[in-house]
Design a protein that fits this description.
single chain, 178 residues, alpha/beta, Nucleotidyltransferase, domain 5, 20% strand, disordered C terminus
Length: 178
């Protein structure tokens, strides 16, 4: 499936993580919904079921994921398998699925591609001050686990990047569809 000039008005960003996933729904210029979902035991199956609930509830026009299979990706095998299952889920619901690598996300947010997830979260908080500014996690120390809220910012970043790519920016997804 090719990315065309259609203006996608309802974009669902999904960011799988070791805990579960973060999600964000952009409707036109507004952040309509966001959150995170955690899972235990059979994490992938539970995450797929929860994402399917989101798809049925929000009826997105496109779903955006991180390209966990991109060259240089260090994502765990379970996360890579979950991403493939989410792709299949999108296809089964006839929803286009766009993929961006972590490198593409960093290039989009930072001209030199040098930045951190914390920097992206700060930027997203500034873009949606009423919704997310107070949720930006504090800077992580080396001994700390990543804050669960970072999954939300990862999902917003993917959806935001897709919206900007479709609405006239020069960044385009590496892959779209199956």
């Amino acid at each position: 499936m090719k990315l065309d000039s259609k203006k996608y008005d309802r974009i669902l960003g999904i960011a799988p993580s070791s805990r579960g996933f973060g999600y964000a729904l952009l409707e036109k210029e507004k952040l309509a919904n966001w959150g995170s979902s955690s899972a235990s035991k059979d994490k992938n199956t539970k995450c797929v079921m929860r994402v399917e609930e989101l798809i049925l509830h929000f009826e997105p026009e496109v779903m955006v994921l991180e390209d966990t299979g991109a060259e240089g990706s260090r994502r765990h095998q379970r996360i890579q398998e979950l991403s493939q299952r989410l792709l299949a889920l999108g296809v089964s619901h006839e929803i286009p699925v766009a993929w961006f690598s972590r490198e593409q996300v960093m290039q989009f947010f930072f001209r030199n591609g040098k930045g951190t997830k914390q920097d992206v979260a700060q930027h997203i908080g500034e873009q949606f001050p009423e919704d997310l500014e107070m949720m930006v996690p504090p800077k992580r120390r080396t001994w700390m686990n990543e804050d669960y809220r970072m999954d939300i910012f990862d999902a917003v970043a993917l959806a935001f990047m897709f919206r900007e790519a479709v609405h006239g920016q020069d960044q385009s997804p590496k892959r779209i569809g199956a």
